[in-house]
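[SOLVED] Predicted holo structure with adenosine-5'-triphosphate

Edit: marking solved, answer below. Original request kept for reference. I posted the sequence and ligand SMILES and asked for the 3D complex as structure tokens.
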Amino acid sequence: MIKMSKKKETVKEIFASCSFSSLGLHSTLCDQLRERLGFEAPTKVQAQAIPVILSGRHVLVNAATGTGKTVAYLAPIINHLQSYSPRIDRSSGTFALVLVPTRELCLQVYEILHKLLHRFHWIVPGYVMGGENRSKEKARLRKGISILVATPGRLLDHLKHTSSFLHTNLCWIIFDEADRILELGFGKEIEEILDILGSRNIGSIGEGNEVSNVKRQNLLLSATLNEKVNHLAKISLETPVLIGLDEKKLPEDKSHVRFGSLESDVKEEVEHPSTTMRSTTEDFKLPAQLVQRYVKVPCGSRLAVLLSILKHLFDTEVSQKLVVFFSTCDAVDFHYSLLSEFQWSPHSQPDMELKQLFLRCKTFRLHGNMKQEDRITTFGAFKIEKKALLLSTDVAARGLDFPKVKCIIQYDSAGEATEYVHRVGRTARLGERGDSLLFLQPVEMDYLQDLEKHGVSLTEYPLLKVLDSFPLYGQKPRVKKFLTTESHPWILSLQNALESFIIHEVRLQSKMKKLAKDAFCSWVRAYTAHRGELKRIFTLKKLHLGHVAKSFALKEQPSLVGKSFQKQSKKRKRDQRQKGQSGKRKFPSKTNAK
Ligand SMILES: Nc1ncnc2c1ncn2[C@@H]1O[C@H](COP(=O)(O)OP(=O)(O)OP(=O)(O)O)[C@@H](O)[C@H]1O
């Protein structure tokens, strides 16, 4: 009963008590929302944003993750385009441009668009993104794409080099996940795009660029606000309507706001009364029904604890769907292979072990070093699974909508609080229940205070209780004797099994050992890449590298692993040099991180 009324309450908090048609959307579009997407009623964000966007105003939406921001901007744009008379056609080129930070998000938005346009066949959806075949994209642009979803780098490429790309009729530019676009270092590209499209605010248009005669409406959506987002709002939005921003977040003196720059962190004092929001520590919007916990784990037991918690979650919940975040691509690869291969049966005596896969669930991996096709396949497959595990870098942290994810584990800390918010935002979507679990080492506990500053508070996960629940050799360990995680018999046995698996696996021809070493090296490098205040919390000097090695099931001393570390560093420098020469965007210091 209580559960039911709670659910009702959450539904009330998320959904508006009106219909899509009452917001001014055409009945065919409302039918598409219902038939193609299964949306009966708008969410609150949609109910607020749709009429304002229909009215033609510039908009800045700051709403919690998973509240339906995508349809909030797609529906009114489609509504406008379907009403044009005479009907638009491909030869009119692009009318709306949706900018997104990642390839996966690009495909996700495109998919929704495709569904919504089913009955509006004259409005053509399309996408361009890094990693795709340029000539094929050129051909599609030449034919004409009415609503184009794009990642910034590839879009800029086409704006400069695809002469047949017609955008003189462009009416809308939408920045979806604006904060992420800027964090990924696309600030310069965005400024160039705005200049080429003549969509900078009057007074900040670059010299020699034509300003289109078509009336432009720009929309900016972000679950978090910071100075860079403020700056983008300043240069791209004209007297925007702020949706989801509390009045209390507006500065009292609206004439002087500090805005950051897209390119650097240098702040400037700018007068701009129309986009008067500032980055405060309360800018994080988290779903109210999300249960956030942390687990304190000594470094050397991290791997065994992760596996134990995963086992517990999959054993206790039939339809468990879970995402684990790691700091580097190599760490994802190592854990993926380990989970796919590691066999251990704790139920029988060690000498007569009956081996079976430790974790029996479908496991996927996703990171930026994977081939484009593999990323797309994983993305699609994990989406439809009911019981599955996804191991990922932050490439999956933003905007991706995987239905029914019940739990998010941050095995490696996100660092920036904004990233924490986006990672946990992959669960508890649209009023659903969701859990998140953050792994912290004893020396990292100050991170909780950092999160607290942003209004994010976590409670402790009952780890020992969970460990005690595992029967070892047919018996449950006796609870009281084992007060620490690292001395718990279950953890000791599992750690032993993991280490001998890495050493003795002959079948895999030492593949696991190499993966573990590479993962160790990249993890150490990522750990040293924390910036600013976080450097004080995540300090490599405070860690015992032998224990770090243990967390990759390695028995070797760190000095042995050091050789491969140097090799990786050299390779990284070489890659960076090559990237610099080819004029490509430089990634932040965390190479291998995405
Ligand atoms: N009106 C609606 N009725 C039912 N489901 C909806 C509605 N609007 C959106 N959804 C669903 O809610 C989920 C979240 O939507 P969406 O991805 O647009 O959220 P978001 O606010 O953009 O999240 P994030 O900030 O993480 O990108 C999706 O699965 C979407 O299909």
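OP edit: The radius of gyration is 25 Å. Thanks to everyone who chimed in.
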